Amino acid sequence: MIYDYLVVRFGEITLKGKNKKQFVVKLEDDVREKLRGFPQLEIKRHFDDLEIKLNGEDSADVLAVMQRVFGIQNISPAIKVGTDLEQIREGVLRVANQENGAKTFKIAARRKDKRYPIHGNELNQELGGAVLNQCDWLKVDVHHPDLLIRVEVGYHEARIYGREVKGAGGLPVGTSGKVMLLLSGGIDSPVAAYLVARRGALIEAIHFQSPPYTSDRAKQKVIDLSKKLRGFGGKFVLHLVPFTNAQVAIRDAVPEDYRITIMRRLMFRIAEKAALQRGALALATGESLGQVASQTLESMNTINSVTNLPVLRPLITMDKIDIAQIAKQIDTYDISIRPYEDCCTIFLPKAPRTRPDRLHAERFERKLAINELVDEAVQGIETMVIDADTNEDAFSSLL
Ligand code: ATP
Ligand code: MG
Prior knowledge:
VC0802-like; nine-stranded mixed beta sheet; six-stranded mixed beta sheet; 38% helix; disordered C terminus; binds magnesium ion; tRNA binding; EC 2.8.1.4; THUMP_ThiI; Probable tRNA sulfurtransferase; RNA-binding
């Protein structure tokens, strides 16, 4: 590899106006944190990008890590040369030779230093001509080149970029505050966690378990999912809620077709309390409109009315098949389809009500000691900080 630098470009952060700096600083922290395993690197923050000087570290390895940091739009390997035309020409040829899988190319040169005597278009022609001369396997394609060689002429040096790689997008984790996400062992909620985290939220997950009706393997499944999700942020906090007493009480007091509704209302109340204790300003779920009985609008109304917190539902408009696709990309799918029951399935009625009514739900709840059940569950929460290593390779397929 010829490259000495990786240049990391910000995504939406660039639209942040006066707040931009704070986002960029957070992103820089995340990048430094993720790159701790590469001691030789030097990281410099510029107005428009982060510049990582490799000092001999492998650019492909560093790049793979950078692709999992939210807030990054794209990353280019780069070399730096002097600003003489001859030096730039030589640099461009080095890059063209390095990226030898390409059949077509384009040069996109610009001057940052407007006093530089050669204009962008002239540079394009000059450098393009040199590449055509020296690299007989390359042809120009100005619309869809296999290889776009960007050249940026600054005041003291010129940067020449190799093939740009897509970043994970989104916003740096934590810049959007904290969200308490209801994490089941299913396919959907881990995908919801990924999508909310991508928008800059720090996720804490809450999982309801009903031992002995649910097994240790169901718990392990949620821990394994958390390990995967941890790969996108720093640490990952998982709250395990003892839910057996609540579920048994519901089974004993509530008609079968309303059990799921009441159970979900309890989950939301418990999650809300946990959220407030932990400084989270919203709940999040993996619900998708119409997917199952508890995800009709009537159900969502009846269930949602127990909390005043916003409930984020990033999958609400998505089809199952598309959700599964993302689950595969973030490598949670195979864990999610392990067969162990979660707490909802064990007391599942054969025919849940698809249009539950809030007043009916409230009437059934009068037979339950709701506050006590909620308090008992919240007090019994076991909190784990997930910090085991994640399988980092798994995320490469995302990009
Ligand atoms: P998932 O695939 O996420 O389990 P699902 O399609 O199976 O979703 P439901 O079982 O109806 O749908 O659950 C809807 C949402 O409720 C889940 O996405 C999750 O956010 C939350 N949820 C369900 N069960 C649990 C649980 N045991 N612990 C925490 N949250 C849960
Ligand atoms: Mg489920």
